[in-house]
Please model this.
Amino acid sequence: LFNLDDEEKLYSVCLKDMGLEEDSYVLTDVWSGKQYECEDIFQENVEAHGSRLFAINRKEGIQLYDANIRINSVHVQNNTLLLETDYAMKEAELLCSKLPLGVSYNGNALQFEILDTRAIRFDLPGKGVLKIQF
Model:
């Protein structure tokens, strides 16, 4: 959402107009991490000359809401997210719909910490496949 006006503006977004099926969704503000539940129309005030960026995910099932790493592909198998990555990063962070039970990279277990934001943090060794188990 981009507000180019000199005053605060209320925006209304119909999820169906975006091509989304009727369902329950979670909108995540990618800059603040604040989340909103929505089924049909989402409304948000944006300050003058301000902008907001949201990720939209289904409410049900395992979801990846946000990450500070580039992810090339995401696959869900049972209670596991498989994430293909392509570079190493110290203090990689993922925000998922649930807290994971375990994290592994190319078959090797990784230590991770749970942050106040419900995100997890870990050191990503490099290019490969992250397995997030729930």
About this structure: The first strand starts at residue 9 and ends at 14. The CA atoms of residues 74 and 83 lie 5 Å apart. The chain has a mean pLDDT of 94. The two ends are 33 Å apart (CA to CA).
